[in-house]
């Protein structure tokens, strides 16, 4: 659709499509700039009509500046007789990101000071970066490091750090209203599955769903390198910031931990209330966390100069699982059922954003007689196919006084928003309920 080729069966089996996209993106060496990032955006662009943005090196972004573009051709540590013992071609995590070029013989002691390992999990390779201070280094398993016993090794880092661009992808799906819902995910990590690829896959799946339906709000999806990418978008779109009424950063949505929502800095934004409602009503274990100024791009969106209503939806928060930023955050670490559940929760949040509104009971003096309108439903009994019972109808009629929203009603009734919305739709159809304001759905 819209000139993009659909992944086969993507809309019938979203979990399989998400996993397939993750598998395709996994081997690519992404960073905050460079051709791996561009290639990844190109693959996402086969799923969505994504706009590719390129911001030149040296562009000031508030207190930051777009760095030089980094590209890797090859990198390895070899014995002096030419045997490669650590090789970027085997695993792109081996090279410290943003390593400067090098080709020389390095004494063992000096080499050690440039190696990063995880002694407690000796088979895992750490993921390390040095974007903003010039350095070089290799990341390897402790077992590999323990075998480096020669007096010297040849170190080759065939990289370029040169003026170029910072790339990011943007998709806008216009709705009836100009007010926006922002969905942002980072795309700057190399071969890491949960931290970055799961968020990308969920964002793509949601965008594809939204492309196929009529929308009340305008949806903006950002596929950006962490920190510097959100700053680049904010710098170019400062005037648009007040239009964003709801926002979510999507990260780490494929592991088996319970769903987690981290609130916006405001803590009382509509998105905070909606996400909390959806997770509480899901019946599944979940965690609701307050804002902290650490994590993903919510740090930039929620900075006091922007103060956007942006929370973070995830399963495991960053840094809280042993596999985080290691080679163990691989395709075996993420689960199809977790991806499917994350997408389901995100879609429920979007359903509240799209479906909430303030209504008026058009027969407010006494209860309207539901039986004669075919609306009688047993209270708390077997739910009809419409997904609501009599109690939901009574709650909607009771609170449709022009002051309470459907979300208020769902919260007060202790029922899922979808049940309240279905009851409201039935009442609208029978002429018992009408929007209190133009902007209600
Ligand atoms: Zn990360």
> What structural class do the secondary elements suggest?
alpha/beta
CATH superfamily of the largest domain: Zn peptidases
Fraction of residues in helix: 25-40%
Radius of gyration: 25 Å
Annotation field: number of helices: 12
Distance between the termini: 26 Å
Report the strand count. 19
CATH arch. level architecture of the largest domain? 3-Layer(aba) Sandwich
Mean pLDDT: 95
Name the hetero compounds present.
Answer: zinc ion
Outline, from the CA principal axes? elongated
Under CATH at level 1, the class of the largest domain stands as Alpha Beta
Strand order of the largest sheet: 1-10-12-11-13-16-14-15
Beta percentage is 15-25%
The tally of domains stands at: 3
Can you tell me the residue ranges where pLDDT is under 50 for at least 5 consecutive residues? none
CATH fold-level name of the largest domain: Aminopeptidase
Describe the structure.
By secondary structure, the protein is of the alpha/beta class. It folds into 3 domains: 3-66 and 166-354, 3-Layer(aba) Sandwich (Aminopeptidase); 69-162, Domain of unknown function DUF2172 (Glucose Oxidase, domain 1, 3-Layer(bba) Sandwich), CATH 3.50.30; 357-435, Arc Repressor Mutant, subunit A, CATH 1.10.10. The chain is 29% helix and 23% strand. The strands form 5 sheets. It has an 8-stranded mixed β-sheet, with helices on both faces. A 4-stranded antiparallel β-sheet has the order 5-4-9-6. It is elongated, with a radius of gyration of 25 Å. The two termini are 26 Å apart. The chain binds zinc ion.
